[in-house]
Amino acid sequence: MNSEAEQLVRRTRAATALPVCVGLGVSNARQAAEVARFADGVIVGSAFVRRVLEAPDEAAGLAAVRELAGLLAEGVRSGRR
Predict the structure, then answer these.
(1) pLDDT digits (tens, 9 = 90+) for 32-43
(2) Cα-based distances in Å from 32 to 13, 49, 79
(3) Exposed, middle or buried by CB within 10 Å (0-12, 13-18, 19+), for 11?
(4) What does pTM read for this prediction?
């Protein structure tokens, strides 16, 4: 993430009372933590799709998605501390 995302969140918050979420290539816990420091929510999509597509079978894909979700959740929690 770069400072432009954080600045965009600040400008958006000045224009609305709605929660502001960011999802610009977030694919790991470190990136999720960084975004969670300044945004109300972290959006992840392609990282989950990638895990499913790279898995050898459905069970492995589900396990990979479950693992990634846990890592991202921990990243968000660490960014909010």
Answers:
(1) 999 999 999 999
(2) 19, 17, 7
(3) exposed
(4) 0.87
